[in-house]
Specification:
Blueprint lengths: L5 E9 L4 E8 L2 E2 L4 E2 L7 H13 L8 H4 L2 H5 L1 H7 L4 E10 L30 E8 L13 E4 L14 H4 L7 E3 L12 E6 L5 E6 L4 E5 L4 E6 L11 E3 L5 E4 L12 E4 L4 E4 L15 E2 L5 E6 L8 E6 L5 E5 L6 E7 L6 E6 L7 E6 L15 H10 L3 H14 L3 H16 L7 H12 L2 H17 L3 H16 L8 H18 L4 H15 L4 H13 L3 H12 L4 H17 L3 H14 L4 H14 L3 H12 L5 H17 L3 H13 L6 H11 L3
Antiparallel strand pairs: 1-2, 1-7, 2-6, 3-4, 5-6, 8-23, 9-10, 10-11, 11-12, 13-14, 14-15, 15-16, 17-18, 18-19, 19-20, 21-22, 22-23
């Protein structure tokens, strides 16, 4: 069992308002250290995962993007942090109870709590809070019902948030609009971006490497304009600034009064170094890792989560520092510097590749499209197959199979999809009725040959399920389809198999007219394949069912010697039954032993019949032998009940009360309708207390 961290309860669902109200309980504590899992507060990633759990714990009624999120994505922290905001727009904590936990509260708390019957032990004492969860589409709420409660291992994350509708119009941090690689290579200072800065008029973007190489791009077309290697003796280190109002690049102002101010600059337009007659003065921008947009309305910052994961760029409203958007540059570990273009349309970021702080690129972020709600559209066939193979909910499997079949190019392919699901469900320990429906859908779409074969499978499944009427109907349908293949030669084996199936099912059901239909079907099959043992067995079986042993015998004798072990066993059992009815012990023994030699499946009934026969003719020793032998090969209650009652009865008559009580007690425990009551009555005379 996984250790739950939280409990979730749905308090209210308002699809029209794109809102749901949750109560979140903290159910994991360290009582010794008096600490507990934190309340999730405004984490959209936490509540996306709560919604995902709710959707995946219920049958699929229709497909939408939330259900399309795979388990692998759900478990992928980076995927969740980057995509949760597409589903959850905002989370507001509206109430809290028992938080923070007071000193005296710890006496009543335990380390672990698990959901039982929709609640938690002493849940009113748990740390908890209520949250209004605002979503991007009402579909994400379809799986929620007020009162639903469950335990969860979902944890608090640092998910990206796009909480303001105008954020993409300000700057789109979901992906760089352009990437520049001014310092190619890896693993060295020369390949690692350091400083970057836009000229005051936005015409140029200058950047340096950690080896002090300078590269200048023209922003119109983003083409390289200037490159000055470190060995050229430039008058700056890694950090540069534009002389305000000019295209002159020079070192940043000194950090202390003792440092000499820069005396030279590089004229980007002229392509040469020039003397500075005056100190460059204070830079136009503050030299920090925070970058304020020129109009002062927004702030770009570099953030980290403190756990050694890649740094993120965060966009905040300057007025209240409310987070609007957060992202992690893919494939990079650190962010070195940020700078806005003068018109506020571009944010430039130096990003570092590896955890050692080497290598990197310049990423340019620009305004982008509004945040798009994930499409409800259809998933790929591969996605459907993946989800279908991992699902064990019958309704889910049926829905997904239908969706996958709809994608198939032709009817035969649709039939294959349904057939695969039918066989899968049929193989379950307790096969659901949906297996029959899947076979019917396969029959509906399949060719005559495939449909007839599937009809036979359906008939067998329904027979095992105890639906004899359904089994007969399915067999008849398969036979009609097989017979339709007769023109042009058809499939003789399939026609034979379908005919035998009709005969077997009608004979087994034994309703009005069924034996006549079975006899005609067996005769037709014998015409298709003369001497076929199963048809001979069937004709003998029909005659035996009618009580006409004389008519049955020649068919059964031919079947028993036809060299087919399966038919031999059943034919021998029927011949043994005829001998038993005639009280011919020697003949019965001959055939029942032959049945057991043909296949051990016949041992329980054969030994039981021999035990009963010897009992009926008064041979108590023989009866005990065969009944005791039967108890070694079966535990079927109806057979055990008869054998134990007879053995107990004979033991009681012989004065062996201990053995009689043992056998009679076992017969009583079977609760068999015929023998358990008799055993109980006889047992009462032996043990009056």
């Amino acid at each position: 069992m996984s250790t739950d961290l939280y409990g979730a309860r749905v308090l209210d669902v308002a699809p029209g308002e794109l809102r749901a109200l949750f109560r979140i309980f903290v159910v994991y504590y360290d009582v010794h250290d008096r600490s507990h899992a934190p309340l999730p507060d405004g984490d959209v990633g936490f509540f996306f995962r709560i919604l995902w759990e709710a959707a995946h714990d219920r049958p699929i009624k229709q497909w939408h993007a939330l259900q399309a999120v795979s388990l692998d994505d759900f478990l992928d922290v980076d995927w969740g942090e980057a995509n949760s905001h597409l589903y959850v727009r905002r989370v507001d904590r509206v109430a809290a109870r028992n938080h923070p936990a007071k000193d005296d509260a710890w006496e009543d708390l335990h380390d672990f709590y698990y959901e039982r019957d929709g609640g938690w032990v002493n849940e009113d004492r748990l740390v908890q809070a209520d949250y209004e969860v605002h979503v991007t589409d009402p579909r994400w709420l379809e799986s929620l019902t007020p009162g639903d409660s469950w335990g969860t291992t979902v944890y608090v994350t640092n998910a990206d948030q796009v909480t303001d509708p105008d954020a993409p119009a300000v700057i789109d941090l979901r992906g760089a609009a352009r990437r520049l690689d001014p310092f190619p290579g890896t693993g060295a200072d020369a390949a690692t971006p350091s400083d970057l800065t836009f000229s005051d008029d936005g015409e140029y973007l200058a950047m340096t490497s950690q080896a002090c190489e300078l590269v200048v791009y023209r922003t119109a077309g983003w083409t390289e304009h200037t490159r000055i290697p470190e060995r050229a003796g430039v008058p700056w280190g890694q950090d540069v600034q534009w002389v305000p109002g000019t295209h002159l690049l020079t070192a940043r102002p000194p950090e202390s009064e003792d440092d000499e101010p820069p005396a030279t600059a590089y004229d980007v337009d002229a392509g040469r170094f020039v003397e500075l007659t005056d100190a460059p003065g204070e830079p136009a921008k503050a030299w920090t890792q925070d970058a304020v947009r020129p109009d002062g309305a927004y702030l770009a910052t570099i953030g980290g989560d403190g756990f050694g994961r890649p740094q993120r760029i965060e966009l905040r409203r300057a007025e209240d520092e409310a987070l609007l958007m957060r992202c992690r540059p893919k494939g990079h570990r650190y962010v070195s510097h940020l700078d806005w273009s003068p018109d506020g349309r571009v944010l430039a970021a130096g990003v570092i590749e590896d955890h050692n702080g080497y290598g990197g690129e310049i990423h340019l972020f620009e305004p982008g499209a509004p945040v798009a709600v994930p499409e409800a559209g259809q998933p790929s066939a591969e996605k459907l197959r993946e989800r279908l193979d991992k699902s064990y909910d019958v309704e889910d499997i049926t829905t997904l199979t239908g969706m996958l079949a709809d994608r198939a190019d032709d009817a035969a392919a649709k039939a294959r999809v349904w057939r695969r699901t039918a066989k899968r469900l049929e193989d379950w320990a307790t096969p659901p009725a949906a297996a029959a429906d899947a076979y019917r859908r396969a029959i509906e779409h399949g060719t005559a040959t495939d449909a007839a074969s599937d009809g036979l499978s359906l008939s067998r499944f329904l027979y095992r399920s105890g639906d004899l009427d359904g089994a007969v109907d399915a067999a008849r349908g398969a036979h009609r389809l097989a017979e339709s293949l007769e023109d042009g030669g058809g499939n003789l084996d399939l026609r034979y198999a379908a005919g035998v199936r009709v005969a077997d099912m009608t004979r087994t059901r034994g309703g009005s007219g069924d034996l006549d239909e079975a006899e005609a079907a067996y005769q037709a099959c014998l015409s298709l394949k003369p001497g076929e043992p199963w048809s001979l067995l069937g004709l003998g079986w029909v005659a035996a069912e009618r009580g006409d042993d004389e008519a049955a015998r020649p068919h059964l004798l031919e079947a028993v010697d036809a060299g087919h072990a399966h038919a031999e066993g059943y034919a021998a059992m029927l011949l043994g039954g005829s001998a038993k009815a005639a009280r011919d012990v020697g003949e019965a023994l001959r055939w029942y032993e032959r049945a057991m030699n043909a296949h051990d499946r016949h041992a329980p009934l054969a030994t039981g019949h021999l035990g009963e026969l010897h009992y009926l003719v008064g041979d108590r020793a023989g009866a005990r032998h065969w009944y005791e032998r039967m108890l070694k090969v079966t535990d079927l209650p109806e057979l055990v009940a008869e054998a134990c009652f007879r053995l107990g009865e004979m033991a009681a008559a012989g004065g062996d009360t201990e053995r009689a009580v043992k056998h009679l007690g076992r017969a009583v425990r079977t609760e068999d309708a015929t023998f358990a009551g008799q055993a109980r009555e006889l047992l009462g005379t032996l043990t009056p207390n």
